[in-house]
Design goal:
The protein is α+β, with helices and mostly antiparallel strands and about 325 residues long. The protein has helices spanning about 5-15, 60-75, 115-130, 150-160, 165-175, 215-230, 240-255, 260-270, 280-285, 295-315, and strands spanning about 20-30, 30-40, 45-55, 85-90, 95-100, 185, 195, 200-205, 210-215. The chain has a five-stranded antiparallel β-sheet with strand order 1-2-3-5-4. The chain has a two-stranded antiparallel sheet with strand order 6-9. It has a two-stranded antiparallel ribbon with strand order 7-8. The longest helix has 20 residues, at about 295-315.
Length: about 325
Amino acid sequence: MPNPAGQVLSWAACAVNPSARVISATGMRAGGNPWLLRLANAGNTSEVVLKTGDVTADLDRLQLITTVAALELAAGNALPAPRLIAADLDGSAAGTVAVLMTVLPGSSKIPRVASAARLRALGAAAGALQRVALAPRPGLELRTRSLYDMDFAGWRRSAGTSQLLDRAEQRIASLPVPDGQLVFVHGDLWQGNTIWNGDSCSGMIDWDAAGAGPPGIDLGTLRLDAALFFGSSALASTGLPAAGEVLAGWQQAAGRPAEHVAYWDVAAALCTVGDMAYCLPGDVVGELGRPDLDAALLTARRDAFLAAALEELDS
């Protein structure tokens, strides 16, 4: 991907300090957007994150509007997320729509073996969000599933599906979205969007799908993510599978039992297509430090997770 243009870099540097200048811009996802900017100012260096969008694309602008609203809400509730530095949501100053934010220390790399402590910390991250009651509002609209702007059913029709996914789609369609209080949801909460220092989660990133919704949206996505990366076998230390540890961490942080877990597990699995190579291609899992995973294994793990959720939902 091309590096950010000079105008947006000048805007970003000036937002930090009028005398600062950008000395490097490094792509953080597949070599591109968002960008880690290194700044120099009066002999000192610092780093910030720049996320940009196409000024002519409505979706790009909406996603950055959501990012700004989510970061402001996260800061107001002392949630672990980047802090907003500046935003240009019409491109008048930066030359493109852009958001500038602080850097969270740590890494998004996913270990090959997860400790119970890490998995519970992952669940606790979502559990903290559910404490923030939120009515839908501009920038943080109503959400009923993860990645609200992606048509997964249509994607399955073009990229391929399976009998299991078809059955899950029909089952979910026959049910109402569970009632309950609407809360602040991340909307795309998986390990690739979390930052870690050892087994401590230092924050959540990529808030462009956030909104107001049932807390099960984020919990189900995290449980599926844990099953994909670590499988369904019980951990030797606790006897719980990875998804079970995520649930335990969520419930401990939330201070209450989770509701409608099977429904939200199925809903999370429906944010995929038949072949997981399309959802988590090899370059993505490799970038996250898990080249040991391939599409066949990820698909088998997704199917096992979904089949168990459907059985629980139907019981």
